[in-house]
Design goal:
By secondary structure, the protein is an alpha+beta fold. Among the domains are: 344-465, Serine Threonine Protein Phosphatase 5, Tetratricopeptide repeat (Alpha Horseshoe); 484-579, no CATH class; 582-725, Jelly Rolls (Sandwich), CATH 2.60.120.260. Helices cover 47% and strands 12% of the residues. It contains 29 helices and 13 strands. The strands form 3 sheets. Strands 7, 8, 9, 10, 11, 12 and 13 form a 7-stranded antiparallel sheet that branches. A 4-stranded antiparallel sheet has the order 3-2-1-4, covered by helices on one side. Strands 5-6 form a two-stranded antiparallel ribbon. A hairpin with a 2-residue loop joins β1 (279-284) and β2 (287-295). It starts with 6 loop residues before the first helix and ends with a strand.
């Protein structure tokens, strides 16, 4: 087995300037194959200074001896290797379009690329290299790899990389794909080609679900929300779609027979990807949603997305890493106010490519045992693109293996991460967690630790990135607070200081901190957490006055609502109860003997106005009564989340004393997942109280939403939303 040099052919393909470099590579590749000497090849390539040789060396490192030999043994395999190894643009496209696996997965990815090159003999194949490369790359890493391999191994309608490649190529040539497809780079194409449905399903969607790009967030509603099929089989079991598997493809089946959030979100996501638009499904607590990429940094949410745990991702399984990826590869940064700032995507691509080149040099230095040179190369990689998460990981791993790195060096690295990733605080904290506990904190006393953690929270509080409900405080705050003695003054001082930082900047994160403290800081923590929150914004120093206490408890209630934390909400309204008076009428117009199930729930509003009284929100869910007040909206709403899914027996709505006529047109809907709603009642009559009888109707719900509907924007206010049902105790 040998690879002909064909230097003359290389000159035609690569240009005269590349001949010498390529000739060296061809000689070394031949020698490597004949002598099975991968180390010799790596050493030889490492001596070459040009970017082509640098990329060639990195490919050989990733794929390994057996991978190169396996392709060389294939029909025209040597020709493919000459073409691929000699084409710098294509080679770097493979190596610098997001994470690449090592060893066997990388070899499989390169084999996929060879297979696609072999299968496509058309003249326009070169223009579809990004598409082929995206498919090959997704074979090398999880979670993309499992999706593709699962579809290849399907017993019903298996796909191959070639069938998926030609589906998109032919659809593009037939002008069937959305114009967005033409704008995609290899890295973003990776979110298109791994659609987790068979090719027949994609073809069906291409012909039957045609929408403007921005409407694919609604494509999920092509599917009827349905939990039980015509034969009585539940969607939670394996038999729901079984009767139609042979006759209907993977998209027709849910379209014809329905499903719940997972089926709807997958349908919507695959419909977008079938038209060449990047998309992913996303896991949320008790729910599945999806996201559709409409442009750089613009992931629009479908069925409750885009935040949560994406099922396909780079670097980390959180929406925060999707935002980091967009910043790194597309120069798109979503700010705190939801506004996306953009740089030129080609500029971002150049930065990322240069960053990766420095990482390949760092890898060569590591293999030579030169940790200091590897550190310099990692620093250069981050200077080229500071949001390259892979560069940060390599730098941390290199430092961890270098005993000469002392406490001062680790602190300097931590300071850099804090400064350069301040817009991406979740990845920032994840990187710090890789070395903080072992290398950084042991050098600090309690005062230094407290100061360091406060710096982190100041960065989080001042972030320009987006804070979402899935910040996962258990992986950050829990590790910080355990550094202080349990229930000690230092621990509570840290918690209180963190609350103070977030109280002024981000109510949602404040609510998450409050929720975490209530659940994790031990017996009596709810009262202590509320007391701590009251203390941080108290007016007049250490002695709390009534006005200051009411102000901060109102802030705590709104924060808990925004964080969607029932526990924090209940802790706050309990603390506020002594400051509010009952508002319910003397007689409640509902049957006797009903069990109230809303009193330990959570109230959330579509908006809050200056007339709102947050301290009374908890009373809205109890028979004592309370009050809420929204802004002007066409359909303002109030939603009650119960502690458990419950069979309802009735709902009592209590109108306000003043301006009661605003509540003329009311609609009540219920949901078991917080995303799909079923209307159960409506009224166009103004009353002091409305009772909705539900006994013996089998209405089950976890969420109850009350909407006030108007032709023109109007406010909405009630004194009570009392939900009755079967006791869950």
């Amino acid at each position: 087995m040998r690879i002909p040099f064909l230097i003359g052919a290389c000159a035609l393909a690569l240009g005269i300037a590349a001949v010498d470099s390529y000739a060296l590579t061809a000689l070394r590749l031949e020698s490597f194959i004949n002598r099975n000497d991968v180390d010799g090849l790596k050493t030889a390539l490492a001596k070459e200074s040009d970017n082509l040789s640098l990329a060639q060396g990195e490919l050989v490192r990733l794929v390994g001896t057996d991978g190169i030999k396996a392709i060389a043994a294939k029909p025209n395999g040597e020709t493919f290797l000459r073409v691929f190894l000699g084409d710098q643009e294509w080679l770097e496209m493979f190596l610098a379009s997001g994470p690449v696996g090592e060893g066997k997965p990388a070899a499989e990815g390169l084999m996929v690329l060879y297979d696609l090159w072999s299968a496509d003999k058309a003249r326009d194949a070169r223009g579809f290299r990004p598409l082929a490369t995206a498919l090959a790359l997704n074979t090398t890493i999880e979670p993309f790899r499992s999706t593709l391999r699962g579809l290849e191994n399907s017993s019903l309608r298996p796909i191959t990389p070639a069938s998926r490649y030609f589906f998109f190529k032919n659809a593009y040539l037939a002008n069937k794909l959305n114009p967005i497809f033409k704008t995609l780079q290899t890295w973003s194409l990776r979110f298109v080609v791994s659609a987790n449905h068979d090719d027949q399903g994609l073809a069906w969607a291409l012909d039957n679900v045609n929408l403007p790009a921005w409407r694919y967030v609604d494509a999920c509603w092509f599917v009827e929300y349905r939990g039980v099929n015509a034969f009585g089989d539940t969607i939670q079991g394996p038999l729901f779609y079984m009767p139609w598997r042979e006759q209907d493809n993977s998209m027709e089946n849910p379209y014809k027979h329905g499903g719940v959030c997972g089926s709807l979100s997958t349908f919507g996501s695959v419909a977008a990807r079938a038209h060449g638009i990047p998309s992913y499904t996303v896991g949320q607590p008790g729910h599945c949603a999806y996201a559709v990429r409409l442009g750089p940094g613009d992931w629009a949410g479908g069925f409750g997305g885009p935040a949560g745990g994406p099922h396909q991702y780079f670097w980390g399984g959180s929406y925060y890493y999707i935002l980091l990826m967009e910043d790194a590869f597309a120069g798109a940064l979503k700010t705190k106010d939801g506004i996306t700032t953009l740089s030129d995507e080609s500029t971002a691509r150049t930065k990322m490519l240069n960053s990766q080149r420095h990482l390949w040099k760092a890898q060569q230095a590591i293999e030579k045992g030169d940790r200091r040179q590897a550190e310099r190369d990692c620093i250069a990689a981050l200077e080229a693109q500071s949001t390259n998460f892979s560069a940060w990981e390599m730098r941390i791993n290199n430092a961890s293996a270098d005993p000469s790195v002392l406490a001062k060096g680790w602190q300097g690295l931590a300071d850099e991460i804090l400064a350069k990733l301040s817009n991406h605080t979740k990845p920032m904290c994840d990187l710090l967690a890789k070395f903080e506990e072992k290398q950084l904190l042991p050098q600090m006393d309690n005062a230094a630790r407290l100061a360091w953690f406060e710096r982190i929270h100041k960065t989080i509080a001042g972030t320009k990135g987006q804070i979402t409900w899935d910040w996962q405080l258990d992986s950050v705050f829990a590790n910080q607070i355990k550094q202080f003695p349990k229930d000690s003054s230092e621990q509570w001082a840290f918690f209180q200081n963190a609350l103070a930082l977030h109280a002024a900047t981000n109510e949602q994160f404040l609510g998450q901190l409050l929720d975490w403290g209530v659940k994790n800081l031990g017996e009596g923590s709810a009262d202590k957490c509320i007391t701590a929150l009251a203390a941080v914004v108290a007016e007049g120093g250490d002695q709390l006055n009534t006005k200051a206490t009411e102000k901060i408890l109102g802030t705590a209630i709104l924060a808990a609502e925004k964080a969607k934390s029932r526990d924090a909400f209940q802790a706050a309204v309990k603390a506020a109860s002594k400051y509010v008076k009952p508002t319910a009428p003397a007689k409640l117009e509902r049957p006797e003997g009903l069990t109230l199930v809303s009193s330990d729930g959570l109230l959330t509003l579509s908006t809050t106005s200056g007339w709102d009284r947050p301290l009374e929100h908890g009373g809205v869910l109890t028979e004592k009564g309370g009050f809420f007040h929204t802004n002007n909206e066409k359909t303002p709403s109030a939603t009650v989340e119960l502690r458990n899914t419950t069979t309802l027996t009735g709902i009592l709505l209590i109108n306000s004393d003043g301006h009661a006529g605003r509540q003329k047109s009311l609609v009540v809907s219920v949901s078991t997942d917080g995303a799909t709603w079923h209307k159960i009642w409506e009224s166009d009559k103004v009353q002091g109280q409305w009772f909705i009888p539900l006994s013996d109707k089998g209405t089950r719900a976890r969420w109850v939403k009350v909407e006030s509907q108007h032709e023109n924007p109007e406010v909405f206010h009630l004194r009570g939303i009392l939900v009755y049902g079967e006791s869950s105790k």
